[in-house]
Amino acid sequence: MPMPRNSRPSRGKGSRSTKIQSMENTRSDAVKAMESQEGNKEENSQAKKSPSSPQGVAKKRPAFGDLTNAHQNHPKQSKKVAVKDTAKKVLRNAVAHDVCKNSKKYGPKSLPEEEASVSSEPIVKEEAILVEEEEPSVEGSSAEEEPGPSKMPTNETRKVEDDPYANNEYAKEIFTYMRKREEFFPISNYMVKQHDISKEMRAILVDWMVEVQENFELTHETLYLAVKLVDHYLMQVVCLRDKLQLIGSTAILIAAKFEERCPPCIDDFLYICDDAYQREEILRMEINILHTLKFDINIPIAYRFLRRFAKCAHVDMEVLTLSRFICELTLQEYDFVQERASKLAASSFFLALKMKNLGNWTPPLECYSGYQSTDLFSLVKRLNFLLTYQPQDKLKAVRTKYSHKIFFEVAKTPTLDMLELEEILKNSV
């Protein structure tokens, strides 16, 4: 029988409720499936980003970036390589801290033994890689050094390395150049035209300059250069005796500016001159000396040659100090003014070797000094005469200076008899 219009079929309550319940179950299953998929994606992404995660696997890489990114998702930082040792220590501490933190958070099961061993291996391997990367830069800076185990240099080695005149690569060229420059700075017998000063006045001035060098703790190069400046200035300018001390103090000031790191100030020179001069006088004399010498004050001095010869002969400091004492005695003697600095240094060193009975003038010394032993005999005799017969009642500055223990008391070294020296020189040929 057909159903009337506008009439609905009658449904049971049980069938309707069953259909609604099935729809809700289907919806809940779909939601669970979506949640499980999202959870799997998050777990997979965390496993890729964090090797210390309990669900991921540790991955070896040549940089320290992966280890430090355990709790910082910055993949760009993994490309940076640590170079300094301080960076290595920081990275190592950060890794240890992260591993301990993860072990507390996830329990002992989250970090298996294999993973712990793998996380510790890259640190050792990559440190070795960094050392290999750093070594070529060191070898490149000293490419000419001989291969072998590097040793810590001693204090004497450091001093030699710090001295540019003692560098093995270009020391010979430097001293060859200095010997050539000696030809441009000859000193004539200028006392002939000096009517108001004498040799004795010059000796007193140099003796005072030695005391100034000691009091100001200046280098020996400063003293030798200052005496050279005085001689070259007096060779061209006639001087009065009341200006002689002004010339000497100003010469020390110029030499100190040329040789010292921290030269004394003008007030110090006014003090040592007992305020005999004004500041303007020292400044005016400084300008006058520099203009007279045409600002060419890089004059070869005997002290630098002495150090070079001592290094070539491999003698100790006492022998070098004895030769310095002999050479410094000649500064206040006008008779040695016209001698070349290199020859004076070679003769002083030759006499010191004979006084210490250390052998003859060797071929290396002949090569580096440019003098044969026979070229030095006459000057060696004059130096020994000066050392033996110089009056010691006045002009004591040099002898007193080298009588201290700091200078090995070389001024007290027994001198050679003239006849004995003649016999030694004959046997040296």
Keywords:
429 residues, Cyclin A, domain 1, 3 domains, 18 helices
How would you describe the overall organization of this protein?
- There is one protein chain.
- The protein is mostly helical and 429 residues long.
- The protein has three domains: 28-132, no CATH class; 189-292, Cyclin A, domain 1 (Orthogonal Bundle), CATH 1.10.472; 302-428, Orthogonal Bundle (Cyclin A, domain 1), CATH 1.10.472.
- 60% of the residues lie in helices and 0% in strands.
- α7 (199-215) runs antiparallel to α8, α12 (302-313) packs antiparallel against α13 (317-329) and α16 packs antiparallel against α18 (418-428).
- The chain is elongated and about 135 Å long.
- It starts with 12 loop residues before the first helix and ends with a helix.
- Residues 45-92 and 99-159 have low confidence and may be disordered.
- How much strand content do the residues show? under 5%
CATH hierarchy class name of the largest domain: Mainly Alpha
Cα-to-Cα separation, first versus last residue: 156 Å
CATH level-3 fold name of the largest domain: Cyclin A, domain 1
Short description:
With 429 residues, the protein is mainly α.
Summarize the topology.
Layout: H1 13-49, H2 65-68, H3 85-106, H4 113-141, H5 155-162, H6 171-181, H7 199-215, H8 220-236, H9 244-259, H10 266-272, H11 279-292, H12 302-313, H13 317-329, H14 341-355, H15 363-369, H16 377-389, H17 397-401, H18 418-428
Helix pairs in contact: 7-8, 7-9, 8-9, 9-11, 12-13, 12-14, 12-15, 13-14, 14-16, 16-18
